[in-house]
Amino acid sequence: MNGPATFYTLHLFNLKIKGMLNKKVEKALNDQIKVEAESSQAYLAMACWAEINGYPGTSAFLYAHSDEERMHMMKLIRFVNDRGGKAIIAAISEPAKEFKNLQNIFALLLSHENKVTAAINNVVDVCLKEKDYTTHNFMQWYVSEQIEEETLAHHIIDQLNLIGNDKGALYFIDRDIATLKGGVAGAEKGAKA
Ligand code: OFO
Question: What CA–CA distance (Å, rounded) separates 148 from 174?
């Protein structure tokens, strides 16, 4: 079936879909858009610090991680707009500029990711309360992503704790960090998004 009638039916179908985003869910998703934007900026600031302080591997990892967070934000923006809501691009707070060392950076990263996980759980909670199973389903991707990200941060922190202040080992760990998910796969994923 082709022609104007099909177009009209599809248009009506789209309008119906567009009118479907629950207001409480929309607010929770917009809050999450802001969280992802803040994450992207926070990791960008860390990447800059690592770059000018002699950690090229960590810097590459964090630049890619920052791009990934932007991709998380974009995915939410598109979802809200496609479902008939309005994505809000809010002002965000300035991220930290100075860090003590790599241990400090990854401790902050993990604590930030723990907060992101709590924020994502909150969105899931609102979806369940509002019986919005479509958005609930969409959010499962974020739930799985957080498990990966927290595990990765723990792994890096464990390695940094093992070497302590050994500068030679730090050189090799920095090189390894560049090859971890955020540095290589993350950049590829971000490029495809
Ligand atoms: Fe690492 O946070 Fe996005 O989702």
Answer: 20
- Complete domains list, the chain, with CATH: 21-192 (1.20.1260.10)
Phi-psi region of 3 (alpha: psi -120 to 50; beta: other; left: phi over 0): left
Question: Which atom of ligand 1 approaches the CA of 69 most closely?
Answer: 3
Instruction: Give me the pLDDT at residue 20, please.
Output: 85
Whether 116 is in the pocket of ligand 1, judged by its Cβ within 6 Å, is yes
pTM for the whole thing?
0.85
CA separation for the pair 39, 26 (Å, rounded): 20
CA–CA separation, 11 vs 7, rounded Å?
A: 6
Mean pLDDT by 10 residues, the chain (193 residues): 56 56 98 98 98 97 97 98 97 96 97 98 98 98 96 95 90 93 50 42
Atom 3 in ligand 1: which residue has the minimum CA distance?
A: 69
The rounded Å distance from CA 127 to ligand 1 centre is: 18
Pull the structure tokens for residue 3.
């022609």
Q: Where are the beta strands (DSSP E) in the chain?
A: none
